[in-house]
Design goal:
This protein is an alpha/beta fold. 49% of the residues lie in helices and 12% in strands. It has two domains: 2-24 and 274-359, no CATH class; 30-257, Alpha-Beta Complex (Spore Coat Polysaccharide Biosynthesis Protein SpsA, Chain A). It is built from twelve helices and ten strands. The chain is globular and about 70 Å long. InterPro entries: Glyco_trans_2-like, Nucleotide-diphossugar_trans.
Amino acid sequence: MLSICVIGVLSALYAALFLIFSLGLIRAKKGEKNPEKLWTVSVIVPLRNEEEHAKRTLEALNAQDYTGTWEVICVNDRSTDNTAKILEEFAATHPKFSVVHVPMDAPFLESPKKRALETGFHAAKYEILMTMDADCIPPKGWIRSMAGRFRGNIAIVQGPKKNSGSPGIVHAFQKLETLGYTSIEAAGFSLGTPMVASAAALAYKKDLFFQVGGFGDLVHLSSGDDDMLVHKMIREPNVGFCYNLDKDAVVETAPVDTFKGLLNQRARWSSNGTSYTNHFYTLFLTLIYTFYVWLFVSPWLAFLFDFPWTWFVIPFAIKVAVDTLFLTISAIRLGEKKLLCALPMTELLQIPIITVAVPLGIFKLFKWK
């Protein structure tokens, strides 16, 4: 009886969470089209061994249509391929672009990306810091759209992203899952409680970043250059934030090509799950993860030890139902309805991937580039 009660509570918690997310996503606004002012903007792009993507990313940034003052600072983070050469050659003929280098003998850090970002932030000249990953392609209106959301006390703007790639199973899974993560971001910001964030399309005021001590106490963590930083910044008085659902703000990011790479990426993302300063949030994540573990383990218990199949079927049916509702709203709001074709496959694959990735992340069993 106790087991049934625990399973029921976990199922109800999961359902309630995604119903709340669905409400938040419905309430999310696209924002005003007319900017309050033309902010000055510094875009910071950390790159490590990105010779495959660097030129394409630089050209997409160079095509931006923002009429205010802006710059792009490329941070070469100890690359051992041709990344540095590509950056220097591009910057030599494009005056808005500059390159800074992290020394090759820089000391080991759990999260070298934070050091690369902060190196760029110290070199930045302007009011708004925008971050983007090296494998991302922003639309030409990205800077304009993101900068235009800073009005009143808004000091943090999160933008959406989507995956590129083929219709194959690995890429299709990531496309739909990225839609889900993006929608969770939007829902949290809309409800006034940002839970997750993404440095692939994030902007905040430069003064705010240094006011909270930069990455400071987050440097020792494997990730956290996005959500943990946002959590830290919103604790400051009178700091407003918003989500930018404008189609001109959607950054396209390259997916990983194998399940091994996907598992490594998810492990890296989950590596700080026990390090959040908000203990209620950590407990909440733990309960949700426990729900996934149960969905992973229960079919084996039913198959091998004659446990009731209903102990798996009913919680799984609840998950599928609320996921379908949430992702349908997500697909409509973000114009990605075709991605829903991958929903059945994603529902099955997500359970083992998350179940395995979390302990790999906690025990640091993943690799940085």
